[in-house]
Give the backbone structure.
Amino acid sequence: MSWEALAAVGTLLSALIIAVSATFALRQVNQLRRATQLDGTMRVFADFTDPGLIAARNFVLSEKLKDPAFVRELKNYAKVDIANHPEYRLLLFLQLVGSLVKNRLVDGPGIYEFAQYTIVRSWNVLEPVARMQREATNNPHMWGGIDFLCENAQRWLDQDSRRRDVRSPRTGEPFRVEQWE
């Protein structure tokens, strides 16, 4: 065997070793990314089950929106007192989750599967507050993370329901998000 042939075999073996190493490195990076996403998602799940956030979610906003003093406080975005406005805590949290999902820092489908009802129903109640604050601040992007989160949660629910042929427990008809009360 000549030195040239030996060098060629050595070069080929080196390239093979580099290719195998790169494959393992990419696999390890992917596993690290998934572990990081899982950690972030688990932290979001813990916040969704926090008693303070649940109390904020259960706060009856629709009746409070009839109180002019309450509405004046809401319109003054910079001075909202969270002690008097527990719904604001939910707005901030959903905005944070929406931003995390939008920027792919946590996995959207995992969040949607876990908290679809809280996301969609809370936004249905809180959207008038967001509209008031957008108008008061002249900022159409305000609470955009929640818009993103809710739209994608509804889209995920529709797709998942069709794919799995999910039926309404009351009517037996194909499930639609609009059926929630």
